[in-house]
Structures are given as structure tokens and as C-alpha cells.
């Protein structure tokens, strides 16, 4: 657990303190900027391999998340935000399996909290911008419910719509990356202990823990991609609910 609370490297005791997790986030951010700069600096009508790869990633967010849920008009409006969320979560997650970094930038609460707040504020902004009165009325007093039941339904809607949504976004991302890190640490430190410190009769077990370690590394990559997709997708779903005439 100490991996999530590393000692300060620079500016200890100040609001600008930099530790290992912050350094990993800086590296991931630099990687995002570098990838998109290299992929878009010399755009060609017939793209090369790297430009094609970057365009495939951008098209994936545009087609499968933004336009699929929000339509072309609203999809274009919120595409920059959804693209930023997807690739930020993706790159920050993948640092968990990069040798030398070995921890996700999203495994400490700061980044997931900021992203959840941004997603939540966008949901509220989209609803108010679309139809402020109708947004809150439909959210708190769902159409078709007998009016006496609003005594029960409205408090539930307040909690589920305006409290639970940002919390679930935060916890889903954070806990997946924490658990993934702990599993990898468990298997690889177990392999080291079995191989170098355990009695001879147990050393053969290190092969099994090593295989499981590599298997869970592949699973961690899959989880990193899925969490980026789910976070961006749920943000788009919430925006779609906010701009719908009835939700």
C-alpha cells in the first residue's frame, strides 16, 4: 500500500509536492502530447501508419462514443471533452504495466476525482444549457409517476442522479486500478520470494506465480482500455440524458 503514498521527490511539504505518482502522471501527459503531435504534425491525404493509428483512435471515440450516443450535432459539441477523457484515462492507466513506472496515474484519488467532477459538471451544464427548467423537473419528478409517490421517488432521484453518479465514476476507475496494482505486486513479489528466499521444495511454485503475473499483466492492459472506454461512455450517456427532452 505504500506504493500509493510515496515519499516526496521535490517541493516536499508544499502544494506543489512531486512524488512518484505525480511523476508518472507527468510522463503519461508528455506521452499523450508527443503521440498526438507526431501523429498530426504532417497530415497527409493518404496517411502513413502512425497517422492512421492516431486517426483510428480519434475515430473510435467520435463514432462509437460521441456520435453513437449524442448524434452528430451534440457529438461534435462534446467530442473534445470525450476524446480528452478517453485518452487521458487510457494513458494514465497503462503506466501500471510499463517497467520502471509500474503504477497507474489513476490509482490515487486525485485524477479520478477531477475527471468525475468534470464529467458531473458537464452533465449539469448540458442539462441547464438545453432546458434548465425541464432538466431539473424531469430529473426530480419523472413523468408518469403518480404525484403522491414523488415523496419517495424525488429523494431517490436526487441521490441517484446528483450524488451517486460522480461517486460511482470515481470509485469504478480508482478501485479497478488499485486492485490491479495489488494483484501484480502480489504475484511478482511472490515469484521473487519463492525463487530466492523460499526453501528449495517451494521454488518450483515460482513458475506458477510468474505465469499468473504475466497473465494478470495482460488482463491489466485490457482493464486499462475498458476503464477508459467506460468512463468516456458513461460521461456521454449522462450528457445524452441531460439533453434528452424526457429522461
Automatic annotation (TrEMBL):
Gene3D superfamilies linked to this entry: ATP synthase, F0 complex, subunit A
SUPFAM superfamilies: F1F0 ATP synthase subunit A
Compartments reported by the entry: Cell membrane; Membrane
Entry similarity comment: Belongs to the ATPase A chain family.
Membrane topology: Multi-pass membrane protein
A single Gene Ontology CC term: proton-transporting ATP synthase complex
Task performed by this protein: Key component of the proton channel; it plays a direct role in the translocation of protons across the membrane.
Pfam family, one: ATP-synt_A
InterPro entries hit by this protein: ATP_synth_F0_asu, ATP_synth_F0_asu_bact/mt, F0_ATP_A_sf
Major location category of this protein: membrane
Keyword terms of this UniProt record: ATP synthesis, Cell membrane, CF(0), Hydrogen ion transport, Ion transport, Membrane, Transmembrane, Transmembrane helix, Transport
One function term, GO molecular function aspect: proton-transporting ATP synthase activity, rotational mechanism
Superkingdom of the source species: Bacteria
Organism: Subtercola vilae
Transmembrane segments: 20-39, 78-98, 104-126, 147-167, 173-196, 208-241
Name of the protein in question: ATP synthase subunit a
